[in-house]
Amino acid sequence: HVARDMxxxxxxxxxxxxxxxxxxxxxxxxxxxxxxxxxxxxxxxxMAKKWMKKAAANGVDAAVKALESM
Length: 70
Prior knowledge:
- The protein has helices at 6-18, 22-33, 45-57, 61-68.
- The protein is mainly α.
- The longest helix is centred in the N-terminal third of the chain and has 13 residues, at 6-18.
- It starts with 5 loop residues before the first helix and ends with a helix.
């Protein structure tokens, strides 16, 4: 059994997103938007939009749709 460590996941998503990984960009956007809870992290809409735009630009259809409602 492996415990879920969202803070560590956030770290790795950030590393991958900064390297251009579109799915990590989308995951970060969802985390910053508050869709995924990370203990100690307050939702940050500005950061959510930043990563959502990058994910959309990199071809993530769900990010394109999410931007329409942000």
